[in-house]
Specification:
With 67 residues, this protein is mainly α. 73% of the residues lie in helices and 0% in strands. This is DUF4214 domain-containing protein.
């Protein structure tokens, strides 16, 4: 699968993955979450919008929301 996420989105996803799971994502997992992020952005999901900002405070808020 070809990545559809922009580099800032990909970086934010990797940082979130490391923060939440304590390890870097494998290629298949990262690809899955990139697709989920794109789908959430397409439907206007506010948590996805916060993650897409690639802002540390927004990233922290999303992490808390998922915990």
């Amino acid at each position: 699968m070809v990545s559809t996420a922009s580099q800032p989105h990909r970086t934010a996803l990797i940082e979130l993955y490391i923060g939440y799971f304590g390890r870097a994502p494998e290629a298949q997992g990262l690809s899955y979450w990139e697709g989920e992020l794109q789908a959430a952005l397409a439907r206007g999901d506010s948590a996805a919008q916060a993650l897409a900002q690639s802002d540390r405070s927004a990233l922290h808020a999303v992490t808390l929301a998922l915990a």
